[in-house]
């Protein structure tokens, strides 16, 4: 690959994660080079960590040794764009911002809005099944991927899906790799389905005095004739972090379509939420879209830990209230935001002065219990190593663990791809 594409020594500092520095970082320029690197690493039993933009590098259980970072920055081309078919094939190292700019030039877009699109790469977003507030209507990465190419831990090049939306032949292999955090294979290219750009898009906020009332309003919106692209909840701390005026919790709703349709939906939203004590509908500026997925995280700099809870949509506001009370009872502040329509909640914890990892772990454990009580589960998205040593990062997968471990053993028999990072130790 040439010396310029192999980093060692002090050049590795950007790729150190949780105090662990890799032995080297390599940047292949083709699928064949990715395959060759993985074959060499497998033969030497050296762990391989696929690296896109590094936005999710700290998610999961840390690998036991530094190993090899396999960077995909050179695989950054828009391989094919078929506007008539509303599909595109893109290499994994292309950033989401660069992809969207290329697609928008031809009147289309990929309906994903993950955090930090200037850094997040297409492969990384797919590997983490990342998404943002527009997931409410348009789905997460797994809903938009129709094909991909990945290199397994044996160096085998696997292709699944196709370049057209109506491709239903065989197993839906791409979904096996979506959300696997690079533990089953290194994603090298992805085919996605696109949408035409809407004529108008608008994000609005409605303030409430109590989080419970905001939750009731969110459920009322879901039961109405409205078709929002986003339906988020933010408690008072998260709303403040978003830059909203001081006040109570906020319900944040997005709409798109033709101008007349968007105008009607905003007016109808005011009527629906006004019945439950909501304030006036406030139109927010477009840059606010990029801040929504980070609302709870922005509340504290730095937070002591970040947890993601997945619960039934009807339970979102109750889970947020119970979790905040559990933190207060232990002397901690917390901030909460949620994609209320899909039941995905993000919570951060913060404490003044010296914070003991064991105390943080106790609160996170109670939050996990709250999620389970609401029929869901919880994952630690970020925490210091000392906290991760006190509590498992991933929730218990139950009987599915055995199936996941068998799939891992089949695709990565040498256990070199992100070993131990994901659920059930795979």
Summarize the structure.
Helices cover 30% and strands 23% of the residues. By secondary structure, the protein is an alpha+beta fold. An eight-stranded antiparallel β-sheet has the order 15-12-14-13-17-18-16-19. Strands 5-6-10-8-9 form a five-stranded antiparallel β-sheet. A four-stranded mixed β-sheet has the order 1-2-4-3, with helices on one face.
Can you walk me through this structure?
This protein has helices at residues 31-43, 96-104, 122-128, 135-138, 141-144, 174-177, 211-222, 236-241, 259-274, 288-291, 316-329, 357-373, 385-388, 400-411, and strands at residues 6-7, 24-26, 48-51, 68-71, 78-82, 87-91, 108-109, 145-152, 157-161, 185-193, 195-196, 200-207, 230-234, 250-257, 282-284, 305-310, 333-339, 344-350, 377-382. It has 426 residues and is of the alpha+beta class. The protein folds into 4 domains: 3-71, Uridine Diphospho-n-acetylenolpyruvylglucosamine Reductase, domain 2, CATH 3.30.43.10; 78-196, Uridine Diphospho-n-acetylenolpyruvylglucosamine Reductase, domain 3, CATH 3.30.465.10; 200-290, Alpha-Beta Plaits (2-Layer Sandwich); 296-388, Alpha-Beta Plaits (2-Layer Sandwich). The longest helix is centred in the last third of the chain and has 17 residues, at 357-373. The protein is globular and about 65 Å long.
Query: Beta-strand percentage?
Result: 15-25%
Question: Architecture of the largest domain, CATH level 2?
Answer: 2-Layer Sandwich
User: What is the percent of helical residues?
Assistant: 25-40%
Oligomer: single chain
Indicate the structural class.
Answer: alpha+beta
| CATH hierarchy class name of the largest domain | Alpha Beta
Report the mean per-residue pLDDT as an integer.
94
Shape descriptor reads globular
Number of beta-strand segments: 19
Q: Uncertain spans, ≥5 residues at pLDDT below 50?
A: none
Major beta sheet, specifics? 8 strands, antiparallel
The value of Rg in angstroms is 22 Å
């Amino acid at each position: 690959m040439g010396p310029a594409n192999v980093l060692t020594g002090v050049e590795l500092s950007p790729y150190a994660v949780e105090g662990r520095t890799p032995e080297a970082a390599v940047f292949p320029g083709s699928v064949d080079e990715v395959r060759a690197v993985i074959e060499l690493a497998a033969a030497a039993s050296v762990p391989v960590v696929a690296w896109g933009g590094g936005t999710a590098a700290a998610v999961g259980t840390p690998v036991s040794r530094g190993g090899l970072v396999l960077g995909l920055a050179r695989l950054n081309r828009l391989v094919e764009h078929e506007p008539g078919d509303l599909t595109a094939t893109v290499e994994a190292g292309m950033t989401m911002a660069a992809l969207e700019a290329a697609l928008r030039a031809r009147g289309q877009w990929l309906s994903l809005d993950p955090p930090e699109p200037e850094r997040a790469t297409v492969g990384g977003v797919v590997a983490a099944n990342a998404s943002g507030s527009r997931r409410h209507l348009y789905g997460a990465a797994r809903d938009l991927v129709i094909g991909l190419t990945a290199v397994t831990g044996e160096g085998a090049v696997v292709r699944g899906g196709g370049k057209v939306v109506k491709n239903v032949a065989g197993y839906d292999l791409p979904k096996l790799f979506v959300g696997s955090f690079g533990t089953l294979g290194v994603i090298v290219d992805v085919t996605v389905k696109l949408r035409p750009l809407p004529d108008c898009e608008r994000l609005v906020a409605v303030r409430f005095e109590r989080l419970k009332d905001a939750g009731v309003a969110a459920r009322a919106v879901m039961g109405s004739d409205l078709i929002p692209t986003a339906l988020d909840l933010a408690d008072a701390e998260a709303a403040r972090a978003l830059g909203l005026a001081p006040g109570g919790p906020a319900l944040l709703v997005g709409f798109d379509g033709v101008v007349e349709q968007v105008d009607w939906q905003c007016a109808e939203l005011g009527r629906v939420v006004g019945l439950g004590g909501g304030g006036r509908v406030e139109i927010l500026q477009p840059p606010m879209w990029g801040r929504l997925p980070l609302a709870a995280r922005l509340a504290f700099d730095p937070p002591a830990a970040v947890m993601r809870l997945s619960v039934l949509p009807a339970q979102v506001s109750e889970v947020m209230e119970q979790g905040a009370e559990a933190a207060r009872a232990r002397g901690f502040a917390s901030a909460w935001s949620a994609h209320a329509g899909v039941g995905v909640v993000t919570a951060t914890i913060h404490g003044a002065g010296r914070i003991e990892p064991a105390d943080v772990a106790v609160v996170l454990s109670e939050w996990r219990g709250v999620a389970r009580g609401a029929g869901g589960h919880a994952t630690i998205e970020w925490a210091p190593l000392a906290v991760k040593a006190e509590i498992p990062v991933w929730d218990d997968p139950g009987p599915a663990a055995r199936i996941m471990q068998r799939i891992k053993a089949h695709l990565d028999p040498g256990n070199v791809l992100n070993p131990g990072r994901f659920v059930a130790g795979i």
